[in-house]
Amino acid sequence: MKKTFTLKKLSVLLSLSLVGTLASAQNLQMNNMSLKSELDWLRAQGVIQISTSTWPLTANEINRALSNADIRTAEQQQIVQSIRYTLSKEPKSLVNTKVSAYAQTDREQLPQSFADDKTANFQAAAQVGLSEEDWEVNIRANVKDKDMIDDEDLSFEGSYLAGKYANQWLIAGQIPTWWGPGHDGSLIRGDASKPVIGVTMQRDTQEAPSHPYLNWIGPWQYQLFAGQLEDYEAAKDAKLIGMRLTASPTDWLEVGASRTFMWGGEGRPESASSFWDAIKGTKDNGGRDGGDPANQLAGFDARVNLAPLVNAPVSVYGQYVGEDEAGALPAKNMYLAGADFASSFNTTNIGSMPYQLYTEWTDTRTSGDVKGVSYNHHNYTDGYYQQGYPLGYALGGDTESIAIGGKLWVDNQNFITAKAQHAKVNQSSRATNQAFPESDKLTVLDVAWEHQLNPKTTISSRAWVSDSDIHSTDVGGGIGVEFANF
Known about the structure:
Layout: H1 2-17, E1 28-29, H2 33-44, E2 54-55, E3 57-58, H3 59-67, H4 74-88, E4 96-104, E5 120-132, E6 135-147, E7 154-155, E8 160-165, E9 168-174, E10 178-179, E11 197-203, E12 220-228, E13 239-250, E14 253-263, H5 272-280, E15 295-305, H6 307-310, E16 314-326, E17 329-347, E18 351-363, E19 385-386, E20 389-390, E21 400-411, E22 414-425, E23 440-454, E24 457-468, E25 474-484
Helix pairs in contact: 2-4
């Protein structure tokens, strides 16, 4: 706990020390539901080629994709303009500021989705960001009351310091991550827990290799991460290491490979040889220094876009991640699969409205069986969680889920998302999963609305109904406001 607090203070002090020397532009786009949805819609329509499976994204990569956009309809132009507007809200060489507040009823039975970071009954945030082309700093202070994950009243989640050289970003701070093609979940790095404090490295723009023998790889990205877990009592100050690689060898296919491992911490070996064993990943069942060198997960994912193949605005995707290794491949697997459809429809009063529909199935049991293995480990007994909340899929291990959702752009000012989800959660009743600590069945209807009141003010609202086998039916809601560059 003491080391973690020191890392927090160091991150903030580094940011403060550079405020006076940098100018501003939002080079790095953190997890953002509306932005991801717009990029996904354009990709499914065959307008752009871009990967949205690895976050954060960069503004330069988004602009690169938009510069090659094949715009054929007014609806496509509407979405492109909306993205450009989002990117332009934080101009270069100016101080960018945001102040926000959000209040909601208790949400313990509401599953989290991508960029769903409203976890307290009340929370307020103030942030300032500055950057130039090759530098960026963002300082964010959060005040929360009755947060469901931890009891800290003040935090600096979302604060970071970043620099770019030779198309590579190095980011230090506490930022969210997302690895995978899913709309609602990732099996290996989601954003249901608090962001892990650490260092991230990735490319800025994702052009294909220029070498003629490597150009077939197509646009590609990597992400390396190293950080320290917070409040991990089973091995205090345990480290989380991760690596991801994606490539799009054709305009209709994206493939990805991801790997993470917990290593070190109090009572665990931290020698160079044990770290090398963890990197190799071949001694998970009895490495040096008295047992497994690390708690490993690894897997693959893919997305197929049908628009370039058969001119249909449909994508299908899948991900599988293993808790163990057999024959140099993941074993004891968890699975996620889905499909989405992007189109628009005309109305008499409002005009044409773009929309996207999707369905997503997830199974975090052990190759289809409830064994209490998924996201658990015999040395790292707090499991693949931070403060009890999953580092992977938001509902935790030994869960089966099916979701059907939709996204609707009513006009340039109104964006609506809706989802119906049925899940069997924590079927092994493992106490490591504090998000859903008991075996239960949930049926949830979740609707959210985002309204751009004016260029500087955004209002968000949400309502949900959650039915549980062991808890009373929960009807809840939330409302918030954000002021930007006031």
